[in-house]
């Protein structure tokens, strides 16, 4: 059991919890794209994993992030994960509501491929 500290929202990714990707946020950082994967666990915990992908291409950035997250080993699913651009990247309030279904498919495909490879190595 995780020891509670003043920052109770932090909970390490560990084998005793099953995590899934709930949302993915993208933000441009100069020539690169930051990808923040929001994870939830089976006990209602929340954890964000952030990385800056070495590319300006959003499709390659989400594939890169999905491989990183799936390689953690305790993240079992990315189904129904929503992909959106971060609030500071949108031009109107309507843009904030728009999901990018193509990027969601890219993220899920890369996640599932990596997860299958990790499982094969464990056999």
**Overall geometry:** globular
The whole-angstrom Rg is 15 Å
Give helix and strand order, one letter per element, not per position.
EEEHEEHH
Please report which band the strand proportion falls in: under 5%, 5-15%, 15-25%, 25-35%, 35-45% or over 45%.
25-35%
Record field, number of beta strands: 5
Low-confidence stretches: 1-8
**What does the average pLDDT come to?**
82
Discrete helix count: 3
Give the domain tally: 1
Molecular structure report:
The protein is an alpha/beta fold. The protein has one domain (19-122). The chain is 33% helix and 29% strand. It contains three helices and five strands; from the N terminus they run βββαββαα. It has helices spanning 58-70, 93-97, 101-122; strands at residues 19-29, 32-41, 46-53, 75-77, 82-85. Strands 1, 2, 3, 4 and 5 form a five-stranded mixed β-sheet that branches.
List the helices and strands and how they pair.
Layout: E1 19-29, E2 32-41, E3 46-53, H1 58-70, E4 75-77, E5 82-85, H2 93-97, H3 101-122
Parallel strand pairs: 1-4, 1-5
Antiparallel strand pairs: 1-2, 2-3
Features:
alpha/beta; 3 helices; 123 residues; disordered N terminus; single chain; 5-stranded mixed β-sheet
Give a short synopsis of this structure.
With 123 residues, the chain is an alpha/beta fold. It is 33% helix and 29% strand.
